[in-house]
Amino acid sequence: MIFPLKILTSKQIQQTDFYTIQNEPIKSIDLMERASLKCFEWIQNKYDLSYTFYVFCGTGNNGGDGLAIARMLNLSKYKVYCYEIKLGNNFSKDYLVNKKRLELEVNSINQIKHFPIIENHSKAIIIDSILGSGLNRNTSGLIKDIIFKINQTEMEIVSVDISSGLFSEDNSLNKLDGIIKSKYTLSFNAPKLSFVLPENQKFVGEFNVLDIGLDKDFIGSLNSQYYYLTKDFLLKRIKRRKKFDHKGSFGHLLIVSGSKGMMGSTVLTSKAALYSGVGKLSILSPKCGEHILQTTVLEAILEKNIGNNYLADIYNLKYDWLVVGPGIGTNLETKSFLISLLKKVKKPIVIDADALNIISNEKKLLNLIPANSILTPHPKEFERLAGKWKSDIKKLNLLKKFSNKYKLICILKGANTAICFPNGDVYFNSTGNPGMASAGSGDVLTGIIGSLLAQGYSPEISSKLGVYIHGLAGDFAKRKFGVTSMTSSNIQEFISLAFKKVLI
User: Staple 278 to which of 62, 212, 327, 451, CB 3.0 to 4.6 Å?
Assistant: First the structure.
């Protein structure tokens, strides 16, 4: 599979299905079988024969997938119960074929009183294949009642292609009480846009992308501004070191960071930059941080600033590659210092934390930032920069508008971190976990990205690779520490392993 994955609209997915059927060529029932087999294999790898499955099927193609999965489970000696929810007067042709193939009774639910009594226990799994990705209106009536009943069971739910009731893109007008709350979603070939938006987490759960062999050339011809970032894409863009390379081959980065009581952010940013391979590292901090930095970041060169407890005066150094912001505070003298820095820099820089907070209070400073500089706000920082939003779709539109207006790369941190480029393209990250929601995690990300920029990676690749490595390091930290006890220092410790993993 070629990565990054394009995130397609429901209409584009239908076009891709049709094109694959016409040009592979393959019958639609055989493509359904291929998709169902991928789902079955995922289910079989996760659940042993001690599990019982309750398969709820609509009478469209999504239901056809469910029936085929039920058949495969039954043939493999799983205990399976199958239920049909009529979606209208017309049944999908492929649904009817799979119903004939199924050597199981299919129980019809024509009224809510026919909903089965399901014993809620840890070895019972619901397969949701009621409604597919083409849904464009709110659920209602019997279907909504059935979805409510399924959610009430509090059992693990595995949804085929998409959680029933969820729209593929914009759910801002959807009625949320009519959507299945999945534990896992098995998506075909690519995630849907709704999967990577925080407001839909309770419906999507953990999503898994299954390659069902849709035509890759046709997918490549489709227009999309949304992508899902994974290892295979980055592997071809990461630089490999040569025998006669030296420290001068890997850049010299200046980190402008720190104030009294906030030097930890400087240490985290600096060590992350070093672990990410920068050749030389300098740090510009107030005098209060000198002893801390000399004893914690042994490889760094310290630059002088006249400020005692915070950065002051004007920026008068000559560095091409800079990170600015972690822990600098927002007092007036530091603000004046930051303005002098922004007036002097000519190449893209990385801006984070308090530097963003200073800029958000004086937005004309955005016009001083060199094009293609990288901003790394968390949601609250982005709200201060760009304004409030009422839904995740509106947040995305605001992100694209902001990035385009100021010609900046904006990394909106969080689950499936969104990297937005001035041309409107948005890349969602595939690594990371909730344990990374910890103070200092963003400082680690900033150090990684700054290091890559100094090593000669473009701002675009520095952003994508930096976000991916940061999340992957967090995933390794999770394995050792779990999500509750993980700290940003733990993430930093696994940067080396993350780079090693990407290079394999």
Answer: 451
